[in-house]
Amino acid sequence: MTSPKAVDEWFIECYKTHKGHPLQILVAIYKGNYSKFFLAVVFFFIKHSPVLVLPIITANIINDITTNAPNLMRNIFINSIIMVVLIVLNVPMNYLYTKYKSQATRYAERGLR
Questions:
Q1: What residue intervals traverse the membrane (predicted)?
Q2: CB 43: neighbour CB atoms within 10 A?
Q3: Cα 102 to Cα 105: distance, rounded to the nearest angstrom
Q4: If 0-12 CB within 10 Å is exposed, 13-18 middle and 19+ buried, where does residue 100 land?
Q5: Does residue 97 contact residue 44 with C-beta atoms inside 8 Å?
Q6: How far, in Å, are 64, 74, 86, 87 from residue 90 at the CA level?
Q7: pTM assigned to the model
């Protein structure tokens, strides 16, 4: 583990190197934590997938009911199972998203203090 003084100097150097370019400063501050941010984004999208899939499943169920599909109950059951699985995934994905995002953010906060 690096000493706090070395971390302070590294953050100051990042600021001096990219002075006048706030986005480059932000990217440089999080250097070494890109994988954690990538994982956080992946888990965020998995966590929010029920919101993206719900309209499609609702439309499938409405279409099956209005067209009097021969496999109506089977289709409703399959669509319901898909939604239940996605909703159950929400809790662990939220945990993983928060964990990785927090780890990357804590590193930058520690250096900025």
A1: 37-57, 77-97
A2: 21
A3: 5
A4: buried
A5: yes
A6: 27, 25, 7, 5
A7: 0.68
CA distance 5 to 3: 5
What the block records as the tokens of 81 is 């199972």
Q: What is the pLDDT along the chain (113 residues), one digit of tens a residue?
A: 456 566 667 667 777 787 778 888 777 777 778 888 899 999 999 999 889 999 999 999 999 999 988 999 999 999 999 999 988 999 999 999 999 999 888 877 766 66
- Cβ neighbourhood burial of 105 (10 Å; 0-12, 13-18, 19+): middle
Cα–Cα distance list, 64 to 1, 15, 91 (Å):
60, 59, 30
Which runs of consecutive H residues, i.e. helices, occur in 48-71?
49-66
